[in-house]
Amino acid sequence: MNVLIPGALRSYTGETHVEATGDTLLGLFADLDRRFPGLRFRVVDEQDQLRPNMRVFVNGLCVRDLGHALQPDDFVAVVLALSGG
């Protein structure tokens, strides 16, 4: 599947978009981490939860459940949420 990588994580991939596989979001991030070591830790915490500042969209739908099932033709966008005041 096609994965959009945010600017803050492009130092890991060197690309804006990468191809990855996985039956779930957790599997997707495992695949990305095998190919781009360290990327998963920036998105997923030690309890296998999305970090608070990360958002993941699957085909335009915001998803927080890393057990969310994926299809090979899905488009996944990883987005760094802005915060501050």
Describe, in plain words, how this protein is organized in 3D.
By secondary structure, this protein is α+β, with helices and mostly antiparallel strands. The protein has one domain (2-80): Roll (Ubiquitin-like (UB roll)). 24% of the residues lie in helices and 24% in strands. It has helices at 10-13, 25-35, 39-43, and strands at 2-4, 17-19, 54-58, 61-63, 75-80. The protein has a five-stranded mixed β-sheet with strand order 2-1-5-3-4, with no helix packed on it. A hairpin with a 2-residue loop joins strand 3 (54-58) and strand 4 (61-63). The longest helix is centred in the middle third of the chain and has 11 residues, at 25-35.
Q: Which characteristics define this entry?
A:
single chain, 85 residues, alpha+beta, Ubiquitin-like (UB roll), 3 helices
List the helices and strands and how they pair.
Layout: E1 2-4, H1 10-13, E2 17-19, H2 25-35, H3 39-43, E3 54-58, E4 61-63, E5 75-80
Parallel strand pairs: 1-5
Antiparallel strand pairs: 1-2, 3-4, 3-5
Distance between the termini: 35 Å
Give the CATH level 1 class.
Answer: Alpha Beta
The secondary-structure element order is EHEHHEEE
The radius of gyration computed from the alpha-carbon positions, rounded to a whole number of angstroms, is: 12 Å
Total of domains: 1
What is the tally of beta strands?
A: 5
Structural class: alpha+beta
Q: Residue ranges: pLDDT <50 for 5 or more in a row?
A: none
CATH architecture heading: Roll
**Anisotropy-based shape:** globular
Biggest pleated sheet = 5 strands, mixed
In CATH terms, what is the fold-level topology? Answer: Ubiquitin-like (UB roll)
Strand order in the largest sheet? 2-1-5-3-4
